[in-house]
Design goal:
This protein is of the alpha/beta class and 548 residues long. The chain has two domains: 2-317, ABC transporter transmembrane region fold, CATH 1.20.1560.10; 339-547, P-loop containing nucleotide triphosphate hydrolases (Rossmann fold), CATH 3.40.50.300. The chain has 19 helices and nine strands. It has helices at residues 2-10, 15-50, 59-102, 115-128, 130-157, 159-207, 209-214, 218-270, 276-289, 296-317, 379-386, 404-407, 409-415, 430-435, 443-452, 456-461, 479-493, 509-522, 535-539; strands spanning 339-346, 356-363, 368-373, 394-399, 402-403, 416-419, 497-501, 527-531, 543-547. A hairpin with a 2-residue loop joins β4 (394-399) and β5 (402-403). The longest helix has 53 residues, at 218-270. The chain is elongated and about 115 Å long. It starts with a helix and ends with a strand. The structure holds adenosine-5'-triphosphate (ATP).
Length: 548
C-alpha cells in the first residue's frame, strides 16, 4: 500500500484526468442500469396496457430509452478516451521520473544491474503500472460510488431487494477480490520476477550470440530460455485460471441474486406494495447492477503484479547515488588545470583491501603523464575517481586547487575528455557518434578530428561516408576503427584535461604513433593522463608513474 500511495502522489498532477475517468465510468454504469430498468418497466407496462388493465403515457419512457441508449454509448466512448489518456499521461510521467532517478546512479550505482533488467524496469514494470489506475483505482472507485447509488435507488422501491443486492455486490465486488488479491500476490511477484529474468536472458543471448555459437552453447542456451518461458507460461496460466474461476463464481452469485430478487419481488407484488411493471424494472436493475463490480475480481488480481512491479521500481529509484550530485550551474570553475591527488584511499568494498592507499600525485598543467602498472593495480580506478564516478574513502582530488566535489558536475564534464578502456559506441551513424562530443561541429571539424585520429581516409572510402551506420556497439567497424572513432570523439571535445585509458589498444604501430603525436601536439596547455601498458605510448609522456 505504501508504494501505491507513493504512486498516487506522483500521479497527483493528473488527478483531474483521473477523476474525470472515474466520473464517466460511474455515468456509464448508471446509464446502462437505468436503460435496462426503464426498458423492463416499459415492456411490462405496455403489456398491461395491451391487456387493457391500465393506460400509460408511452412518449416519455420511449424518449428516455432512446436518450439513455445514446448517453450510454457516448459516455462509454468518452470514458475509454479519458481513462486511456490519463493512463498514458501517468506512464510517461513515471518513465521520466524513473529515468531521472536512474541517471544519477550511473555508472557506479548501476554496475551490479544487468542491462536486460534495467530495460525490463523501464518497459515492462512501468507498463505493468498502467493497471494501477486503469484496472484498479478507476474501477474500484467507480464501483464503490455506483454501488451505493444503485442500492440506494433500489431501497426506494424495496428494502429487501436492496439488502440482497448490496450483500451480493459486497461479496462479488469486495470479498472475492480481496481473496483473489491475497492469492494473486505470490504468483504476481513470481510472474514479474520471471518476466524480468526472461528479458535479461534474451537480451544477453542476443548480444552474445556469436560467442555462444563459437562455444557450441546455442542449443543449451535456447533450452534454458524455453525452460524459463514454460515456467512463466505456467505462472500466467495459474493467474488466468484463478481469475476465470472467480469470475465464473461471481457470475453465479449474480444470477442467484436475480432469482432471490424475483422471489422477494413476487411477495411484494402479492402484498400490493409493488406493481408488476416495477417488479420487472427491479429485476433488470439488479441484473445490470453487477456490471458495476464486474471488473473488480480481474482488476484486483492485477494488484499482485502491479505491487511487485512498483516495488522493483522503487527499490532502484530509492538507491542513494554513490556520489552526491551537484545542482546544475552549482560550483566553481577552476582557472588552471593542474591535478592534485592527495592521500587518496579508495576500496570497492570493506571485504577486500583498498585498491589505492594514500595515493598522492601532482600533475602540472600542460604535462602528459603516463600511468602504468600491473593489471588490477588501480589505473582505471584513478581515472574514475578523477571523473567523480566514485568518491574516495579518504583524501582529496583537486583541479586547479579546487576539490572536484566543489567544481560541480556540469563544469567537471566540460573540463574532461575521455577515451575510456571500454568506450560505448552507439548504434547510429559515424556522424551521430561524433556529434555526442560536440553537437555543433560541422563536417569539416568532424573530418579534421578523424584525420588526426587516422580514420578520415577510411571513412571517405565508405559508400555512405559520415552517414555510415556502425551497428550495435560499433560491430560494423574493425576493432582499430572503433578505437580511432572513440579517439576522434575525445579530440572533438577540446577539453583542457584529457584522460586516455589504453587509447592505442588494437592499433597498428603506424596508427599508434600518429594518434599519440596528435594527442600531445593538439593542445600545448592540455593536461593529459595516458594509462597504458605499451612502451610506445609511454614514450610520449613527460613523466611516467608506475602503480603497484
Ligand atoms: N566496479 C568494481 N567493483 C569492484 N571491484 C572493482 C570494480 N572495478 C575494479 N575493481 C577492482 O579494483 C581493482 C583495480 O581495478 P582497475 O580497473 O582500476 O585496474 P587497472 O589497473 O585499470 O587494470 P587493467 O590494467 O587490467 O585495466 C581490481 O582488482 C578490480 O577487480
Amino acid at each position: 500500500m505504501k508504494d501505491f500511495v507513493r504512486l498516487m502522489v506522483l500521479f497527483a498532477p493528473y488527478r483531474k484526468w483521473m477523476l474525470a475517468g472515474i466520473a464517466l465510468s460511474v455515468l456509464v454504469v448508471l446509464a446502462n442500469v437505468t436503460l435496462l430498468a426503464v426498458s423492463g418497466w416499459f415492456i411490462a407496462a405496455m403489456a398491461l396496457t395491451g391487456l387493457g388493465i391500465q393506460t400509460i403515457n408511452y412518449f416519455t419512457p420511449a424518449a428516455a430509452i432512446r436518450g439513455l441508449a445514446v448517453l450510454r454509448t457516448v459516455a462509454r466512448y468518452l470514458e475509454r478516451l479519458v481513462t486511456h489518456e490519463a493512463t498514458f499521461r501517468l506512464l510517461s510521467e513515471l518513465r521520466v521520473w524513473f529515468y531521472e532517478r536512474l541517471e544519477p546512479l550511473a555508472p557506479a550505482g548501476l554496475e551490479a544491474e544487468r542491462h536486460g533488467d534495467l530495460l525490463s524496469h523501464l518497459r515492462a514494470d512501468i507498463d505493468s503500472l498502467d493497471n494501477l489506475y486503469l484496472r484498479i483505482v478507476a474501477p474500484a472507485t467507480a464501483a464503490f460510488i455506483a454501488g451505493i447509488l444503485l442500492t440506494g435507488g433500489l431501497a426506494v422501491f424495496s428494502a429487501k431487494i436492496a439488502f440482497i443486492t448490496a450483500l451480493a455486490l459486497v461479496f462479488t465486488g469486495l470479498l472475492t477480490p480481496l481473496l483473489v488479491t491475497w492469492l494473486g500476490q505470490t504468483v504476481g511477484k513470481r510472474t514479474v520476477a520471471l518476466r524480468g529474468e526472461m528479458q535479461v536472458q534474451v537480451a544477453d543471448t542476443i548480444r552474445g550470440l556469436g560467442e555462444l555459437a563459437i562455444a557450441g552453447a546455442v542449443a543449451r542456451r535456447r533450452a534454458q530460455i524455453i525452460g524459463f518461458s514454460l515456467v512463466l507460461g505456467r505462472a500466467q496460466r495459474r493467474t488466468a485460471w484463478t481469475t476465470a474461476c472467480f469470475e465464473a463464481f461471481s457470475a453465479l452469485v449474480g444470477q442467484a441474486t436475480v432469482w432471490l430478487a424475483i422471489v422477494a419481488g413476487i411477495t411484494a407484488v402479492s402484498a400490493g406494495t409493488l406493481s408488476g411493471p416495477e417488479l420487472t424494472m427491479l429485476v433488470f436493475w439488479v441484473m445490470a447492477s453487477f456490471e458495476a463490480v464486474s471488473m473488480l475480481p480481474g482488476a484486483f488480481y492485477a494488484y499482485g503484479e502491479t505491487a511487485a512491479a512498483a516495488r522493483r521500481l522503487f527499490e532502484i529509484a530509492d538507491r542513494h547515488p554513490p556520489v552526491a550530485q551537484s545542482l546544475p550551474g552549482d560550483g566553481n570553475m577552476p582557472s588552471s588545470f593542474d591535478i592534485h591527488f592527495s592521500n587518496v584511499t579508495m576500496g570497492y568494498s570493506e571485504a577486500v583491501p583498498a585498491v589505492l592507499k594514500e595515493f598522492s600525485l601532482k600533475l602540472a598543467q600542460g604535462h602528459t603523464i603516463g600511468i602504468t602498472g600491473a593489471n588490477g593495480a588501480g589505473k582505471t580506478t584513478l581515472l574514475n575517481l578523477l571523473q567523480r564516478f566514485r568518491e574516495p574513502d579518504e583524501g582529496t582530488i583537486c583541479i586547479g586547487g579546487i576539490p572536484i566535489g566543489e567544481i560541480g558536475d556540469d563544469n567537471l564534464r566540460k573540463l574532461i575528455a575521455v577515451v575510456a578502456q571500454k568506450t560505448h559506441l552507439f548504434n547510429a551513424t559515424i556522424r551521430d557518434n561524433l556529434l555526442i562530443a560536440s553537437p555543433d561541429a560541422d563536417d569539416t571539424a568532424l573530418l579534421d578530428a578523424m584525420e588526426t585520429a587516422g580514420l578520415a581516409d577510411e571513412v571517405r572510402g565508405f559508400s555512405r561516408g559520415l552517414d555510415t551506420m556502425i551497428g550495435e556497439l560499433g560491430t560494423r567497424l574493425s576493432g582499430g576503427q572503433a578505437r580511432r572513432l572513440a579517439i576522434a570523439r575525445a579530440l572533438l571535445r577540446d577539453a583542457p584535461i584529457l584522460l586516455l585509458d589504453e587509447p592505442t589498444e588494437g592499433l597498428d604501430a603506424t596508427s599508434e604513433r600518429k594518434v599519440l603525436a596528435a594527442f600531445t601536439r593538439a593542445k600545448a596547455d592540455r593536461t593529459t593522463i595516458i594509462v597504458s601498458h605499451r612502451t610506445l605510448a609511454l614514450e610520449y609522456c613527460d613523466q611516467v608513474v608506475l602503480l603497484s
